[in-house]
């Protein structure tokens, strides 16, 4: 390993970090400018894109400190028994890389995680050292997201929060049974205690800032977590319930979902294939329903099929509306904002525009069409001064009419 160059280490540890969905950005075509044409690349190792609440795209250097690990979690490609190339950065090497990328305007911050080497405390000390050198010795003011280790001493996690903008602790799997079976070195109660301590530190720091102007900040962007979807038999209803409890109990800013991906030399207890990526997307949609649309977890669970999973062909909001058609149609000129947020096809922005517009005039169907992306999806669930769906809302084939059409891609399309 001593003969590995920094570039070789970066290739290994940036690739190993891609399984963490907390700042993932994917789906683009691979392009570069190595041939002398164009400018830029989509294949830069370790560069990921996170999005701020106001929509800004933030480029981060996303790497592991090391992919060596003393744990043997079945679903992890970096587990102790995995046959992968290993590499390890020193804290100073991570600092030098971060500063070099930042000075070239490639990134705006750092996302740092790690396998467990020697012990949880030893690893956490090195992660904290990276952040300390950046903040204290170099006065680095860019964004820092640190993955903390629940098994490490609480004081080390607290120090991480003093330097990082955001900290996160992965709950890994939706159920305790799944965690015990697939990650025998981890303990669900220990993870929850660590998240509870971070929440207490966040509350204490916020209170101190109110009382003392120069009190130290603690993870001002809050804490987040990640769950792997499809590695165990947990249903979407169980995942939604778990996410809701995490939001309520620990004040999380985000719960991220990562679809299980088969790995080389996988354990026999893992599924042979990955779940459909659309399942991950539906879980994110259900997350938005709870966070921004006023749905309760039990209501999202009502949108699931008999097996407890969200339908893949339609979004959770439409699935709920089809199950509870007695709530529709709604008169957009009279219905409350909360009621209209239940209408499939109407987003938060569209609803706010409707509420603002109807103060000045009685809305017609054409007016609503101008305020939303697809009036065809909205029509069965609303009334206007010139439109009433009559029997459309109750049609037996309404689901098939509103479900997105599946198109067969042409192999040799231009």
TrEMBL record:
Name assigned to this protein: DNA modification/repair radical SAM protein
Residue ranges of domain Elp3/MiaA/NifB-like radical SAM core in the record: 59-286
Gene3D superfamilies in the record: Aldolase class I (3.20.20.70)
A Pfam family: Radical_SAM
The keyword Metal-binding is assigned to this record: yes
Keywords recorded for this protein, A-Z: Iron, Iron-sulfur, Metal-binding, S-adenosyl-L-methionine
Classification via InterPro entries: Aldolase_TIM, DNA_rSAM_put, Elp3/MiaA/NifB-like_rSAM, Endo/Exo/Phosphatase_dom_1, rSAM, rSAM_sf, RuvA_2-like
Cofactor(s) the record lists: [4Fe-4S] cluster
């Amino acid at each position: 390993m001593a003969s590995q160059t920094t570039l070789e280490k970066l290739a290994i540890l940036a690739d190993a970090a891609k399984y963490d969905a907390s700042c993932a950005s994917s789906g683009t075509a691979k392009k570069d400018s190595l041939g002398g044409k164009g400018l830029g690349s989509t294949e830069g190792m370790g560069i990921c894109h996170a999005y701020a609440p106001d929509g800004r795209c933030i480029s981060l250097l996303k790497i592991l400190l090391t992919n060596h690990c003393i744990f043997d979690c079945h679903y992890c490609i970096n587990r102790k028994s995995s046959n992968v190339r290993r590499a390890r950065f020193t804290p100073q090497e991570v600092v030098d890389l971060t500063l070099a990328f930042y000075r070239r305007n490639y990134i705006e911050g750092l996302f740092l995680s790690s396998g467990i080497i020697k012990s949880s405390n030893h690893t956490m000390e090195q992660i904290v050292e990276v952040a300390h050198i950046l903040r204290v010795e170099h006065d680095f003011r860019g964004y820092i997201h640190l993955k903390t280790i629940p098994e490490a001493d609480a004081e080390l996690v607290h120090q991480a929060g003093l330097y990082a903008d955001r900290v996160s602790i992965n709950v890994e799997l939706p159920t305790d049974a799944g965690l015990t079976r697939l990650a025998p070195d981890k303990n669900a109660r220990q993870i929850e205690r660590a998240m509870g301590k971070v929440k207490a530190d966040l509350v204490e720091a916020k209170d101190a800032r109110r009382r003392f102007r120069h009190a130290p900040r603690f993870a001002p962007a809050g804490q987040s977590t990640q769950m792997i979807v499809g590695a165990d038999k947990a249903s979407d209803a169980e995942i939604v319930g778990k996410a809701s409890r995490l939001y309520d109990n620990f004040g999380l800013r985000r719960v991220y979902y990562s679809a299980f991906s088969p790995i080389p030399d996988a354990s026999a207890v893992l599924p042979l294939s990955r779940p459909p990526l659309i399942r991950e997307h539906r879980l994110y949609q259900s997350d938005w329903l709870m966070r921004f649309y006023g749905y309760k977890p039990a209501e999202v669970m009502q949108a699931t099929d008999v097996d407890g999973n969200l339908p893949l062909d339609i979004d959770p909001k439409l699935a709920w509306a089809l199950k509870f058609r007695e709530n529709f149609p709604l008169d957009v000129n009279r219905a409350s904002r909360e009621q209209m947020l239940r209408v499939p096809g109407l987003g938060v922005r569209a609803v706010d525009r409707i509420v603002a517009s109807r103060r000045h005039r009685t809305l017609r169907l054409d007016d609503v069409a101008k305020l939303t992306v697809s009036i065809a999806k909205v029509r069965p669930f609303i009334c206007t001064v010139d439109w009433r769906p009559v029997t459309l809302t109750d049609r037996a084939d309404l689901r098939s009419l509103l479900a997105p059409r599946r198109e067969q891609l042409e192999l040799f399309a231009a």
